[in-house]
Fold each of these.
Amino acid sequence: MSDLYRFGISLDRELIEAFDRHIKGQGYQSRSEALRDLIRNELLRKTTAEGGLVAGAIVMTYDHHKRELVNRLIDIQHDFHDLIISTQHVHLDHENCLEVIAVKGNAPDIEKLSSALKVLVGVKHLDLSLSSAD
């Protein structure tokens, strides 16, 4: 016997047609797959809002020629060492670097780390992506 649970929902025709167009454009094979992802995303938002355990990545680009920027980035990462699983550093060109920081911990702490990095002069772009850690 499967652990799957089947249920029915009632939706307006316009809403389900719009949903079907959306999920087709996203490449979903079925409504069930799309609904599972929507439910997971909503549960992740709840976990994040409640300060729960999450994992994710901070992806940033920066100008490594900016005075003291690299030292500040390293100092901040050391301040949050308990959240950082690993980092990957990529030289994009002579001036620009890409850094990917894998993180795991309580959502508010990871958001503090992300914010501390984002506001540094020389950081051109930073994006935080979180997922469930359980």
Amino acid sequence: MRTQAHKNSQQPLSGSPAQILWARQLMGQLARQRAQAEHACECLSATRSGSDAHALAKWYLTHALRHQRRAAWWIANREYLLAPWFIEEYLRAHRPGAHAMPEEEARAAAWREALLYPEPVRFRGAVEVHALPCDAAETQGQLLLKYEMNPELSRVARNAKFAWNPNRGAYAREIDECSSPLLERAAETCAKLLAAGFRVLVPDARVRKMAVSGDYTREYPRWIRRGRDAFTLELLYEHDPWLHERARSLGARWSGRAMELNWMMSEEAREFAQLYNFRITKSAEEILSRWDTTVKNARLWAGVEGVSPGPPAGDPLADKLLERVQIPEDLRDDDG
């Protein structure tokens, strides 16, 4: 596969230079993950029918590396290249024989079973809702809404935090630790579409059951999560001018995607979360705890009495903070 990866790295890709560079990295990673691909193929329906998982994985890797020449395709599907459902769809779309689409009657019967009907029906056709888990965590992933362009659907999709994805030709939304679990968000989206008068086509029976019964937890709107780096936190909440002013008074500033807060405001962030009913993600809690246990007690001026001991030796996070601290010339003592 190493020779195959080198050969494919020489084949032309379409896209911007940055996209092509990223896509080639993804292609190289996939070429080296044959064992993971075989493991993913072990649970496919074709394997259960007698096909060889090793042969399926080899065909999938070879075909994708040779024929997928759009860099945007690799980037859009980077988190799902080794997901069993993705490989199943790829084989059905590109490999003839056992992986061809089912007969028309069987497919129509499956669609009828997967359809949910609103009361009343306002629009023709049906909106397809797909919940696509990522490899790292099944509770996170991507939601897709597939339907013809419709102003009402656009309104519902925007209110549900979806955005149009031209690479997939559908409305898409990434489900992270603030919005997980994935299936419950899919069920909540189905309920909103049904309330708007759309028929909904849901392949996953678990999502259909939750959408019909209402047995799902609504998405919590207020979160404090980790920011773009290890030194920032982000405040997520629905549009509220009053709450926005409270966040600004805390010291948060708009970063282009959320209100961003410096991680040194650990105590203030916890008080803010308790006062205004924010939940703190696990990654954000780790940042706050690390500040409390190491950086907050770092010794910024050596030899000053009453200063608490410095951070543990070899703590890279505390060392990085100490590098940022510079004592003004007029405050230095005679020893420098």
